[in-house]
Design a protein that fits this description.
Order of helices and strands: EHHEEEEHEHHH
Strand content: 25-35%
Distance between the termini: 48 Å
Helix content: 25-40%
Number of domains: 1
Length: 148
């Protein structure tokens, strides 16, 4: 029997009792920006986030401070990986590894093989989650971006 195949894997290991609540809170732009829906379900030993993006459901279960899962290739997979990256940057205690065992880079770029597949969906969500700066910000602070 073969192993499950996905385009990325994630792992949560946290001592933060409110990790799911913090994650849910920082993902509010998904709902307010009409990118999808985020629900925080609590259970006696932990809970889970149910995230719907482009009509596809994704789960992040965390029990006893631990959770893991894989991201299967789908139309909204790049968006879910972006959500995982946002949680990693803002809340911490989560790692994301691609199927070829490389750590998912934090830089959001259309050149990345996973994110680039759905860049038209990734870029607006990245802006909403403050993972990428928009053109207005770049025009306001051109000195910062001349170096790049």
């Amino acid at each position: 029997m073969g192993r499950f195949k996905g385009i990325a894997y994630w792992n949560v290991q946290t001592g933060q009792d409110d990790w799911l609540a913090k994650s849910s809170s920082m993902l509010a732009p998904i709902t307010t920006g009409q990118f999808g829906k985020v629900e925080h379900l609590t259970h006696p030993m932990g809970g889970e986030l149910l995230i719907t993006l482009q009509g596809e459901p994704f789960r992040i279960p965390v029990y006893g401070g631990k959770g893991q899962g894989l991201v299967r290739d789908s139309g909204a997979a790049a968006l879910f990986i972006l959500v995982l990256l946002a949680i990693s940057k803002r809340v911490g205690d989560i790692s994301i590894v691609t199927d070829d065992d490389k750590v998912m880079p934090a830089r959001i770029t259309p050149a990345h093989p996973i994110l680039g597949k759905n860049w038209s969906g990734v870029e607006p969500l990245a802006l909403a989650l403050d993972l990428k700066v928009g053109d207005a910000f770049k025009k306001s602070y051109p000195g910062i971006f001349r170096r790049f």
